[in-house]
Design goal:
The N and C termini lie far apart (44 Å). With 49 residues, the chain is an alpha+beta fold. It has one domain. The protein has one helix at 2-11; strands spanning 14-21, 27-35, 38-47. A 3-stranded antiparallel β-sheet has the order 1-2-3. The chain is elongated. Helices cover 20% and strands 55% of the residues. The longest helix is centred in the first third of the chain and has 10 residues, at 2-11.
Length: 49
């Protein structure tokens, strides 16, 4: 059943996001869509403190 759900999710371009900090303390946000394991429509944002 888990494999079936995995394959169905691969057919849809799902949206992901990640918040992280660089070594210099700068905070970043990245939003992207992933389809068949390949990222596209990647957007990078710098967050204010």
């Amino acid at each position: 059943m888990n494999k079936l759900i995995y394959y169905i999710k691969q057919l849809l371009p799902l949206k992901y996001h990640s918040k992280y900090s660089l070594q210099n303390g700068e905070k970043k946000l990245t939003i992207w869509r992933q389809w068949f394991g390949r990222p596209f429509n990647i957007e990078h944002f710098t967050l204010m403190s």
